[in-house]
Design a protein that fits this description.
- The protein contains ten helices and 25 strands.
- With 388 residues, the protein is an alpha/beta fold.
- The protein folds into two domains: 251 residues, Spore Coat Polysaccharide Biosynthesis Protein SpsA, Chain A, CATH 3.90.550; 85 residues.
- The strands form six sheets. Strands 1, 4, 5, 6, 8, 9, 10, 11 and 12 form a nine-stranded mixed sheet that branches. Strands 14-15-17-20-23 form a five-stranded mixed sheet. A four-stranded parallel sheet has the order 16-19-22-25, with no helix packed on it.
- The termini are far apart.
- Keywords: Glycogen biosynthesis, Nucleotide-binding, Nucleotidyltransferase, Transferase.
- This is Sugar phosphate nucleotidyltransferase.
């Protein structure tokens, strides 16, 4: 039987693997999309929230335990995970320093917020802050995930390859057009899939392979490298997995391997990526089938409407025009409105007679004037747009 998350609950888990879900970023490059919610909870594909893809992958793969590493608006994120993901017997969620409080109280009571925790400089700091939970007895390998990546994946073949090679670390890699490599971490790999270099956002790419930002570490090797980096002092490194931990492993001659990732994968780091990647889901054949998407948003399941070439989670009234767009559950398109190549979020309304083209209508917003493009959202995310 397949659950509402597209998960096969009877699959065997990944013995000896513990997960680390990096979900502490503020999402400032997403501008108004994260003005009211933390980045992992931004709605996506009329079906779920960004974080749900990583959770679905963990459950689908049978990951025994997943530790949440969060900071910004933790209470909201914890409530979401407790509501939608804490009922899978094959995968246990662990809430780090909040675990005992949450389990003792049976969850997070209404109106209650979690206590603040010290700020972290980067993703490696998040691992160090949660070391007592991540490196506790019972696990030999650590799977690192990000809460803002969109993909459907079974980690078991990657884990099998990781262990068969005896690698200290195995990273996911995907081949893309070289002109886009400078937006990601670039990997240089030899014929044996050994990673020879990892460069974050290179100005002049020499490879068309990018790091998909999920990886498996042998825990003993990871702890040694983190200890060495920490010994350099606060200002002696950038406290980041991609910029420090992995390059240091490679520099030390440790065995870092690449695992090719097939199929759809997207890093949703900016407003334009958020818009473009959702519209990409409308292509046929679909990169991710609507029926395969995690389902956590309230309301009806999204459906692809061929005549509109749109992913729709709400009713479209007579007299409205909707083409190549994503309409989230709870949004309202009034008769006479026109929505073209746009994303309309839950609670948003496009008023009668208004046209939105190549844009985003924010959650709870009532759009009463025509809108074209992402200029408004990009200006909020990056400051005033430069003059032409």
């Amino acid at each position: 039987m397949v659950s509402r998350h597209g998960v096969h609950p009877d699959r065997v888990g990944l013995d000896g693997v513990r997960g680390a879900l990096l979900a502490g970023g503020r999402g400032e490059r997403l501008g108004p999309l994260t003005s009211r919610v933390c980045k992992p909870l931004v709605p996506y594909a009329a079906s779920c929230r960004l974080v749900d893809f990583s959770l679905a992958n963990a459950v689908r793969s049978g990951l025994p335990e997943l530790v949440l590493l969060s900071l910004h608006r933790e209470s909201d994120l914890v409530r979401h995970l407790l509501t939608h993901w804490d009922d899978h017997p094959g995968t246990r969620l662990h809430f780090g320093p909040h675990e005992e409080l949450l389990r003792a109280d049976g969850g997070l009571r209404p109106g209650r917020t979690l206590p603040d925790r010290p700020a972290e400089r980067g993703t490696a700091d998040a691992l160090l802050a949660a070391a007592e939970y991540l490196f506790a007895p019972g696990a030999t390998d650590l799977l690192v995930q990000h809460a803002d990546h969109v993909y459907l994946f079974d980690y078991r073949p990657m884990t099998a390859a990781h262990r068969a090679s005896g690698a200290d670390c195995t990273i996911g890699v995907q081949r893309i057009e070289r002109r886009y490599v400078k937006l990601f971490g670039m990997a240089e790999v030899d014929a044996d899939l050994r990673v020879r270099a990892l460069v974050e956002k290179p100005s002049d790419p020499t490879s068309d392979l990018v790091f998909t930002a999920f990886c498996l570490f042998r825990i003993d090797a990871l702890r040694q490298v983190l200890a060495g980096l920490s010994a350099r002092g606060v200002d002696g490194w950038r406290h980041d997995i991609s910029r420090d931990v992995l390059p240091e492993m490679i520099a030390q001659g440790r065995d870092v391997r690449a695992f090719p990732v097939e199929g759809y994968w997207a890093d949703i780091g900016t407003v334009d990526r958020y818009h473009a990647e959702q519209l990409r889901l409308l292509e046929q054949p679909h990169p991710l089938a609507p029926s395969a998407l995690p389902r956590t948003l309230p309301g009806p399941s999204p459906r692809f409407v061929p005549e509109r070439r749109s992913l729709v989670g709400t009713d479209v009234p007579d007299g409205a025009v909707v083409e190549r767009s994503v309409l989230h559950p709870g949004c309202r398109i009034e008769p006479g409105a026109t929505v073209l190549r746009s994303v309309v979020l839950p609670g948003a309304t496009v008023a009668a007679g208004v046209t939105v083209r190549d844009g985003i209508v924010l959650a709870g917003e009532r759009l009463t004037a025509d809108r074209t493009g992402l200029a408004e959202q990009l200006r909020t995310a990056h400051g005033p747009a430069p003059r032409p």
